[in-house]
Amino acid sequence: MEQPPPATSPMIDATRLRVAIARLSRRLRHHELAGLTPTQLSALATVERSGPMRLGDVAAAEGIAPSTLTRIVTALEDRAYVERCAVPGDARASTLTVTARGHEVLERIRHESTAMLAQSLATLRPEQIEQLAHALPALEQLAEVDPRLPQPR
Hints:
Largest sheet: 3 strands, antiparallel
Strand content: 5-15%
Radius of gyration: 19 Å
Strand order of the largest sheet: 1-3-2
Structural class: mainly alpha
Helix content: 55-70%
Order of helices and strands: HHEHHEEHH
Number of strands: 3
C-alpha cells in the first residue's frame, strides 16, 4: 500500500498541474502543423520513433481503431510523409515507413515548438528557470508513466 507523502513534502495541486500542462501543450501545438491534425502528427511521430511498424502496431500504440488508422495513413501517404511497404510472405500485411519529407516536416514542427517554448521561458525569472530545471526529471517521468499499466517495483 502506498504511503502518504511526508508532512514536509510540498503538495501538488493535480488540477492546476493538468491545466497548466494542457494550456502549454495547446500553445505549442497552435502553430501550423504542415496540414496535419494532432492525431496524424502523433501517428507520424510514433512511426518515426519506432521505425517501420505494422499498421496494427501503430493503431495499438496510438490507441485508435484500425479503421481510423486507415484514414490517417491515407492522409499521410497523400502528403508523401509515409510509405506503405508490403511484408514479404504476408500479402495482407504492410508496414509504415517515414519518408524523407516526413522526417523534414517533423523536424520543422519540433524546431518551431522548441523556439516558441524558448521564447516563453525567456519571460521567467531566474529562480523560476532553476525550479523548472529541477522539476524536469519528475516531469519526464510523468510523461513516460501510464498509471493504468502495472509498474515495476
